[in-house]
Amino acid sequence: MNARRLHWILTVVWGGAGLLLAVAGIILLAAPMLGEPLVTQWPLVAEVSRFDVPMRIEAPVSDAVLAFTRGTLTVEHTGYGLSWLLRLSDVIVSGGLILSGLWLLRAFTREVRDGMPFSPGSARRLRWIGVLLLAFPIWQVIRDLLWHRVVLSQVTPIDGETHLVLPWNQAGMYDLRLVLDPDLGFAVTGVLMLVVAEAFRIGMVLREDSEEII
Amino acid sequence: MPIVVRLDVMMARRKMSLNELSSRVGVSVTNLSLLKTGKVRGIRFNTLEAICRALDCQPGDILEFDEDHP
Questions:
Q1: Which Pfam families does the UniProt entry name for this protein (chain B) (predicted)?
Q2: Cα gap A109→A179, rounded to integer Å
């Protein structure tokens, strides 16, 4: 695939991502007004693998319904509460990171298309893409920690003996542990991108040296 | 850099203009001008050979080592 086509595809992808983000924002803003619940899910693990670990628990919380089904905690929340605010911040931050990364990648392919891959701009853009990729799983952890706090503040215990506990807290026999599940693939790709950015920076210096040799 | 380019001296001795040297060597006037003023990082052997051939001189007549040169 040549750089011209790649640049065109990335332009379309960026536009599509922006459109999806706008739709997500509209749904997020409109859902509480229409009385529609917003659904959030996290992985959960039982502290001890036993037959009597509940396979399904439901509990109403202040502005949400919480359900645990086979390793997944589902929270359906309605209204403009703290959960909604967290959801909104997730859309803004995650969407912002994705759109920024795609925009930088698009700008990089434009430089490749124009025959100038080893320029100060391309090395800087690749470095920023790496930083954004590293920031994404960090944001996922922050977001999940905030969610866990919100959920725990609303539901303790779920059914009298089963508690939800934070990832680092000691859990009882019947307790269910919330799990942090950041996508480490982004972090690995981010580190690789930083290495590639450094290679491009060195390439740029070599190109400048080469241009100054007659 | 202590390497000093004496191209202007040799051009004056041979009474050759920058335009004429450019057409004989096949290097642009801009690049030759940069070389003459010492604003380049290096010179390729084939460029040096072409200049020496055009000016009928040795590489040492064009390049000089001067430790005191800034």
A1: HTH_26
A2: 38
